[in-house]
Design a protein that fits this description.
The structure holds 2 protein chains of 2 kinds. Chain A is mainly beta. Chain A has strands at about 5, 10-15, 20, 25, 30-40, 45-50, 55-60, 65-70, 75-80, 85-95, 105, 110-115. In chain B, strands 2, 4, 5, 6, 9, 10 and 11 form a 7-stranded mixed β-sheet that branches. A 4-stranded antiparallel β-sheet of chain B has the order 1-3-8-7, with no helix packed on it. Classes of the chains: A mainly beta, B mainly beta.
Chain lengths: ~120, ~110
């Protein structure tokens, strides 16, 4: 079955630390990959997405993610986190060219950044 | 564009009452999704529509839940009768064919059933 796994449930970092959140997907064929962010009390916002091309994708607020096909991974990174990055981060995947409805979300990783 | 609009933003009701949640998708989007988010279960897709037609409602928890989309700019999610375990944040999202499955979320409705 298609699935998206986020292995870290809660990550705690100090400001200026580097961040890497893991995401693995289980899909046949070509996939579209997404990272969404949910700040406390707010809705999900698209952080970045990968459809094709350069496997290193840059998003908003200094985030980037790397698609590694051989590892079925799409890890999210940021070289230096800020307190304002405290949020929950969701990885999602869908079959390329599939219908909109087949987007599957991971369970989320909560990031807490200590000032 | 105003983005996806949901109302109400907060709803407190008593067990047994009917609850109606409303959503206005982004203009021109032809897909609409209803999600439920809880601490225990995370983000769950309840139902989605394409061109106002329900495509997959397999995520709807039980018959107490129903959703409609009478036109391209409005959808409702109804719970009747409501139960305390329905307490959650309900998100509506919309998307566009050919948009690569990108979904745009509304601010959510925080529902508390006492």
């Amino acid at each position: 079955a298609q699935s998206v796994s986020q292995h870290n449930h809660h990550v705690i970092l100090s400001e200026a630390a580097s961040l890497e959140l893991g995401c693995n997907y289980s899909y046949g064929g070509t996939v579209n990959l997404f990272w969404y962010v949910q700040y406390p009390g707010q809705h999900l916002q698209l952080l970045l997405k990968y459809f094709s091309g350069d496997p290193l994708v840059k998003g908003i607020k200094g985030f980037e993610a790397e698609f590694i096909k051989s590892k079925f991974s799409f890890n999210l990174r940021k070289p230096s986190v800020q307190w304002s990055d405290t949020a929950e981060y969701f990885c999602a995947a869908a079959n390329y060219g599939g219908s909109q409805g087949n987007l599957i979300f991971g369970k989320g990783t909560k990031l807490s950044v200590k000032p | 564009d105003a983005g996806v609009i949901q109302s109400p933003r907060h709803e407190v009701t008593e067990m047994g009452q009917e609850v109606t949640l409303r959503c206005k998708p982004i203009s021109g989007h032809d897909y609409l999704f209803w999600y439920r988010q809880t601490m225990m279960r995370g983000l769950e897709l309840l139902i989605y529509f394409n061109n106002n037609v329900p495509i997959d409602d397999s995520g709807m928890p039980e018959d107490r839940f129903s959703a409609k989309m009478p036109n391209a700019s409005f959808s409702t999610l109804k719970i009747q009768p409501s139960e305390p375990r329905d307490s959650a944040v309900y998100f509506c999202a919309s998307g566009l064919s050919g948009g690569g499955e990108t979904q745009y979320f509304g601010p959510g409705t925080r529902l508390l059933v006492l």
